[in-house]
Amino acid sequence: MTRITRFVGGLALAAVLAAPLAGTATAQTPDSDAQIMQGLSQATMFDPALTAQVLRQMAQDAVTQNLPLTLDKSEIAKRLDKLAQITVQIQFALGSDIIRPESYRTLGSIADAMHHPILANYKFIVVGNTDTTGTRAFNLKLSQERANAIVQALVVVFGVSPDRLEAVGLGQEALQVPSKPQDPVNRRVQIFTIGTVGPMGAPVPTSAP
Amino acid sequence: MKRFLVGLAALLLAGMAGSASAQTMSYAEAGALIAKSCGPSIERFCAKDNLGTGAVRNCLMAHQDQVPQQCFDDYAAARASIAKRIAAQGDAWNVCNANIRQACAGVQPGDANILTCLQSASKVIRPACKDILVDAGWWQ
Question: How much is the pTM?
Answer without folding.
Answer: 0.82
